[in-house]
Design a protein that fits this description.
By secondary structure, the protein is α/β, with parallel strands linked by helices. It contains 13 helices and 17 strands.
């Protein structure tokens, strides 16, 4: 058995100000063919799964390029085409193969390519032909396109948000592709567009039970795989939105029935899936009213994991002005401030200009008198699926009021609590912990939080979808178009 695996992934915020170029991939995760380490990474799930499944079976695993970038603005044409062509060259060099396993995101948009994954899968299919099984693992915040479904035999999305199941889904993909290659299964796909966009936090109801219901349906009555596309609201492309993908074993009608049933159930619970989004001061008031702590406040609008810069000061400014302490905030991306802190050294007191550097949705720079409390060169943070994430040189600075700010030089969102603890911040002693993340923080921070508040702050990943200048999405789409949609649509 000859198996080829490779990855090319990023999530594109088409409204974000910073382009995604080759440097973004090399900074975050670029491994030429055969050089990905044993340690898992989020978008190399199929590769790690193929290693685990294939070694005891004696597979010949040919490992192609693995490249992924921190979410940001539109990927440059040069970056996409050069990385795509490198992956395809690796595939050609590996021929003949029986199975192709790809780690993709599903919401990558490049200059001239609104559907990068569809383009890549079409080219992969043209190279290997119809007899080779092609499978891909996706992030659920994808734009599921007809080209993606047409040119892959099997697509499997993470089921959990936070994405704690990347390896589990990778193993599922490998097993489904192997069964297809051995002709023990003939997957046929059905897709239903829910004509809406929902945010499904699988850490709470009703999303948690809905995912459990989906998993209970898999392996019964001919249904072999079910994936939910939540959609990625900040990608202005035609296929943006919530969709249901079902594979049945040789029975297209059964796949369509189950997909339609689940889509209708999902549409029916759409209001219950929503979150309150208090403004900055309302969120701070709510947190202060809670007895004890710590209270975690999620600055979703400035989440680098959704393409935001990570340098917004809207919440930080109000923490300073209201003298709220003890509190901490991070990670705030500011390489210049980090460099100054390293030059000054631990214990130094200095005036430091922090944040607000990229554009209007980053707020204003804040000039603060701070003490450098801790420095950590090349700091790594615990991440999802037993992987780690680089934060670069990092510093913790503190105001006289007891507000601690974690500054980083490599843009990333809050995932592991060790982004604070490695710099000496005692989270248990905090009244508030402000994290720049939408939901990936939840797996770790929920263990220390007394309460969690999702803040409706300004930012590049604003929850106010009606304010976004969409040009390409298919309309109408709930909730962007309000109550104009019926509960069930064909």
């Amino acid at each position: 058995m000859r198996v080829f695996s490779a990855s090319l992934a990023t999530e594109t915020n088409t409204f974000a100000p910073m382009p995604t170029g080759l440097a973004s991939f090399r900074e975050r995760g670029y491994y030429p063919a055969g050089q990905h380490p044993e340690q898992p990474s989020l978008f190399a799930g199929p590769l790690i799964a193929a290693r685990q499944r294939g070694r005891p079976l004696g597979w010949e695993l040919i490992e192609g390029m693995v490249a992924f970038a921190q979410p940001s603005g539109i990927t440059t044409r040069a970056a996409y085409e050069s990385l795509r062509d490198e992956l395809l060259a690796d595939l050609r060099a590996a021929l003949p193969v029986d199975i192709v396993l790809l780690g993709l995101h599903g919401a990558m948009v490049a200059d001239g390519y609104d559907d990068c994954e569809g383009d890549l899968l079409q080219r992969v299919r043209a190279i290997v032909g119809p007899g080779v099984v092609v499978g891909a693992e996706l992030d659920p915040h994808n734009h599921l396109s007809a080209a993606m479904v047409e040119h892959a035999d099997v697509l499997v999305s993470f089921k959990q948000y936070p994405h704690t199941d990347a390896l589990e889904r990778g193993l599922e993909l490998v097993d489904l592709c192997l069964a297809t290659q051995q002709r023990r299964m003939r997957p046929v796909a059905a897709v239903v567009d829910c004509r809406m966009l929902v945010m499904m936090h699988t850490t709470r109801e009703p999303a948690r039970s809905f995912v459990e219901r989906i998993q209970a349906l898999e392996g019964r009555d001919g249904i072999v795989s079910i994936s939910l596309t939540h959609g990625f609201a900040w990608g202005d492309v035609a296929d943006m939105g919530t969709q249901v993908l079902v594979y049945a074993d040789g029975d297209a009608a059964q796949a369509q029935r189950v997909a339609r049933m689940l889509a209708d159930e999902l549409i029916g619970m759409r209001d219950a899936l929503g979150l309150p989004w208090p403004g900055v001061d309302a969120a701070l008031d709510e947190a202060l009213a809670i007895d004890g702590g710590p209270v975690v406040l999620a600055d979703s609008a400035d989440n680098p994991g959704g393409g935001a810069p990570g340098d917004a000061t809207f919440i930080l400014q109000r923490l300073v002005e209201r003298r709220i302490a003890p509190a901490c905030l991070g990670p705030l991306w500011d390489p210049v401030a980090v460099r100054i802190a390293f030059e000054a050294g631990v214990g130094a007191r200095l005036s430091l200009r922090i944040g607000g550097k990229i554009g209007p949705l980053s707020g204003v720079p804040l000039d603060l008198s701070v003490t450098v409390e801790a420095l950590h060169p090349d700091m790594m943070m615990s991440s999802l699926s037993n992987s780690v994430a680089a934060l670069g040189d990092s510093a913790c600075v503190a105001t006289d009021d007891g507000l601690r700010i974690v500054l980083i030089s490599l843009r990333n969102q809050a995932i592991g609590t060790d982004l604070f603890s490695q710099l000496g911040v005692d989270l248990a002693a905090m009244k508030m912990i402000v994290v720049k993340s939408s939901q990936h923080f939840h797996a770790a921070f929920s263990k220390v939080a007394k309460h969690i508040i999702y803040v409706g702050a300004p930012g590049v990943v604003s929850a106010d979808l009606k304010s976004l200048p969409y040009r390409k999405i298919r309309r109408p789409k709930w909730p962007i178009d309000g109550g104009s949609l019926p509960r069930s649509m064909p």
